[in-house]
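User: Show me a protein chain along with its predicted structure.
Assistant: Here is one chain, sequence first, then structure tokens.
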Amino acid sequence: LLCGGPHPTVLPETMPDCFDHVVIGEGESAAADIVEGRARGRVVQGVRVPDLDLLPWPDYGHFIKKPYNWKLQLFGAAPIEPVLSLNTTRGCPFDCTFCGVRHVAGPGYRAVSADRLVSKLEEYKAAYGLRGVYFREDNFTLDRPRLERFCDLMVARKVGLRWACESRVANLTGPVIAKMAASGCAGVY
């Protein structure tokens, strides 16, 4: 049994003894080290992944038919399903004192490319009947060229998914919001 994320990264000594391993930082290499028996000790340091396009995508085929809540209700509209929750960026250039993102992801901001992201959404739609996606990450809209490329691709390829994301208000303008809406965005948190 292992745990990771902001709390374990910042305060690993507070994790209950029920956890065999406490992962600090990003978890991909640490999880592989644990599963393959290379991890020594309870606290395992993760390695920062510099290029998120190199990471494999989740295989939802193992889970999509399970009785999880795959619905997302957006601002009073009828729920749609299935909706996947994805995280396609890491890090943050801001230095908010209340946030633990920089502790886990390190400095800077990295993102899966818009082209790779849209291709994967098309694949998930074909494989699982995907109807929506929630980008559960702190700064989906931070990289304006990436965001606009994503929106343009969603429209040009007629992907036809509803989506929602999280954003800082300062990242948004009227024209950007209009482009997001035209590409399927139904909500911003």
